[in-house]
Amino acid sequence: MPTPVLLPLRHFTDHQVTLRLHYSPDRLAHVRRIVAALLSHWGLDDLVDDGVLVATELVGNVRHTENPSYELTLRRSESDLLIEVKDFGRTLPAIRTGPPDPDTSRDSGRGLPLVSALSAACGVTPLLDGKTVWAALQAGPQGNARMGDSAHRTFEVLSKS
After folding, report:
1. What is the DSSP string of 63-116?
2. Is 144 within a domain?
3. Closest CA to 149 of 120, 127, 123
């Protein structure tokens, strides 16, 4: 299992963009376009598809909080990307375990397993005023989480030190 605690703090200092937004399902398309354009601008073309999907899933979880305000932060290094969504809800996300839900009409419960499968590391950091849910992606064949054994990765809950 990757060790995600220090990776985001030490290796993502080259570029950073933070957007302060209010959740609305109608705005998810805008978030996707912004993330895709930013990653292309940064030269992280290998991460555009996965980065857009991960960002959309993390932002989509804001709908489960009482407060629709959130911050979407993207940080990059030469070939790595950290996507963070800070919201003001105190309920921590959890990946459902067990067999997949056969009810495909449900609009909830599939996002975090997808984020975990696409990322090199992911987790949630509880904060005094909410939480930050994050995922780290790595470009190139050696970094694609899908090429590794994702069965041993979990969604990490990290305490703020």
Report:
1. GGSS--EEEEEEEE-SSEEEEEEEES--PPP----SSPPS-TT-SSSSHHHHHH
2. yes
3. 120
Nearest to 126 by CA among 159, 88, 154: 159
Record the pTM. Answer: 0.75
Provide the domain limits for residue 85.
Answer: 7-97+107-157
User: What tens digit of pLDDT does each residue of 53-111 get?
Assistant: 999 999 999 998 888 999 999 998 877 899 999 999 888 876 655 555 555 544 555 67
Q: How far are the Cα atoms of 38, 46, 54, 60, 132 from residue 87, in angstroms, in the given order?
A: 21, 28, 16, 11, 6
Q: Are 129 and 123 in contact (CB under 8 A)?
A: no
Please give the tally of structural domains in the chain: 1
CATH number reported for the structural domain that contains residue 26 in this entry: 3.30.565.10
Under DSSP, the state recorded for 56 is: H
Q: How far apart are CA 67 and CA 160, in angstroms?
A: 21
Closest CA relative to residue 1, chosen from 145, 161, 159:
145
Residue 2 forms part of a structural domain: no
In a domain, 53, yes or no: yes
